[in-house]
Design a protein that fits this description.
Length: 363
C-alpha cells in the first residue's frame, strides 16, 4: 500500500499505527512539525486494516441522542483553580479511579512535550489538569486502553474529538466499561513551534521552563488567564494576550492542516461527555458566573448521563442549552479560518530566529 489518505485531511489520530499487525506504519514528521503515518512497504502485508480503521475514511455511526447541556462548577475551589475552567474533569476522573478504573489524559513529559498517558491513582491526576496547547503524542495508547478494557477495568479516555473517534474506530465495538470525554477544540498547534518557543524562552531566561501552566487564573481571574512559566529560581506570569505562543495559536498560524477543514466538528459527538469553557456565562447567567471558572458540559449518551448523575452532588450546576454554548464556542461545529500566511510562517521557522518571527507575524 502506498498511503492511507492525503496528508491535508489526516488528523494524526494514529488509529492506523495502533491497528497495524506488522508494525509497518512509522511516524514521519513534516516541516511544520506534525506527525503523519508512513507505510513501510517492506513490512506491509496489504491487509488494509489501516484504511478500514481510519475514522476519516470510514465515518462512525452518527450519534442520534438528545444532547443535555449544563453550566457546572466543582464545589472544591482548590481543584477548580488548578483546572482550565470549572474543574469537572477532576470529578469525572476521580469517580472512575474510585471504582478501580484507569484514566487516560495528556501530560507534559520531562522534555515538556505533550503526550497521552494513563494514571491509576487520584494523586496522579494533577499531571492531566489544565489545557495543553500542543498536539499530543498518542503512541500505543489505544492498545493500552483495549488491554484494560479486556481486563474488565473501567477506563476513562480524554482527548480531542479526532483522538476519541480514532480510539473508537480502533476498538471496533462498544465496551460497557469505556467512558470517553472530549473537548471543544479550536485546533491543535504544532509541537515544533512549541519546541522552538521553549528555546526562545531559554534565550531570554537562561534555561528552559521546568513547568508551564497555560491557564493560570488565581491572579487576574478566569477570563484574563495568564501563562505561568516556572524556572529554577524564577516564576513568570504573562497575560494570554501578551504571550507570543498563545497569539500564534489564536491567529491560526501554527495549526495542523486538517484543522482548517476538521472532519470532527459537530454538535452531536461520539464521546459520552464534551467539556469546554462556558465563555459568555457572565452575560447569560451572571448570578452563576465567577472568575474561578465555569465549565460547559454536553451529555452525549446514556453513559454520560450516568457519570453526570454520579458526580452532580459535588458540583454547582444549572441547566443551559446548545445555543448558549455555541455562542461562546462556535468552533464546536465550525473549523477555524485558514491563515494565508501559514506556509510562509513555517518556511521562516526553518531558518529565522523566533523573535524575528514574533515581530513579523504578530506585529
Amino acid at each position: 500500500m502506498e498511503k492511507i489518505l492525503p496528508k491535508k485531511v489526516c488528523s494524526g489520530c494514529m488509529a492506523c499505527q495502533n491497528i497495524c499487525p506488522k508494525k509497518a506504519i512509522k511516524i514521519e514528521y513534516e516541516k511544520d512539525g506534525f506527525a503523519y503515518p508512513k507505510i513501510d512497504n517492506s513490512q506491509c502485508i496489504d491487509c488494509k486494516l489501516c484504511q478500514k480503521v481510519c475514522p476519516i475514511l470510514n465515518k462512525l455511526e452518527e450519534n442520534t441522542n438528545e444532547i443535555e447541556v449544563y453550566a457546572c462548577k466543582n464545589k472544591n475551589d482548590e481543584a477548580r483553580m488548578k483546572s482550565s475552567s470549572g474543574g469537572v474533569f477532576t470529578l469525572i476522573a476521580e469517580r472512575i479511579l474510585n471504582e478501580n478504573g484507569v484514566v487516560f489524559g495528556v501530560k507534559f513529559d520531562e522534555n515538556m512535550e505533550a503526550m497521552h498517558d494513563y494514571v491509576e491513582k487520584i494523586e496522579d491526576l494533577e499531571k492531566f489538569r489544565g489545557s495543553k496547547y500542543i498536539q499530543s503524542k498518542i503512541g500505543n495508547t489505544y492498545q493500552q486502553v483495549k488491554e484494560f478494557l479486556n481486563k474488565r477495568r473501567k477506563v476513562l479516555f480524554t482527548g480531542t474529538p479526532c483522538q476519541v473517534e480514532g480510539l473508537l474506530a480502533y476498538l471496533g465495538r462498544e465496551y460497557e466499561n469505556l467512558y470517553t470525554q472530549d473537548i471543544i477544540c479550536h485546533g491543535v498547534p504544532s509541537p515544533k513551534v512549541w519546541r522552538e518557543y521553549l528555546a526562545y524562552k531559554k534565550m531570554q531566561i537562561g534555561e528552559y521552563p521546568k513547568n508551564v501552566s497555560f491557564r493560570k487564573k488565581d491572579i487576574l481571574g478566569w477570563r484574563n488567564f495568564q501563562i505561568h512559566y516556572k524556572y529554577s529560581n524564577l516564576e513568570e506570569n504573562v497575560h494570554h494576550r501578551d504571550d507570543a505562543y498563545m497569539n500564534l495559536f489564536l491567529s491560526n498560524l501554527d495549526l495542523r492542516k486538517s484543522c482548517y477543514n476538521c472532519q470532527f466538528k459537530k454538535i452531536k459527538r461520539k464521546s459520552d461527555i464534551t467539556i469546554a469553557d462556558f465563555w459568555g456565562i457572565n452575560n447569560i447567567k451572571p448570578e452563576f458566573y465567577d472568575e474561578k471558572g465555569v465549565s460547559a458540559i454536553l451529555i452525549n449518551s446514556q453513559k454520560g448521563r450516568e457519570v453526570f448523575d454520579a458526580i452532580k452532588d459535588n458540583m454547582t450546576y444549572t441547566k443551559s442549552n446548545l445555543e448558549q454554548v455555541i455562542k461562546g464556542n462556535p468552533v464546536i461545529s465550525k473549523s477555524v479560518e485558514y491563515n494565508e500566511k501559514r506556509e510562509e510562517f513555517f518556511e521562516d521557522l526553518q531558518m529565522a530566529e523566533f523573535d524575528s518571527l514574533i515581530k513579523k507575524y504578530l506585529a
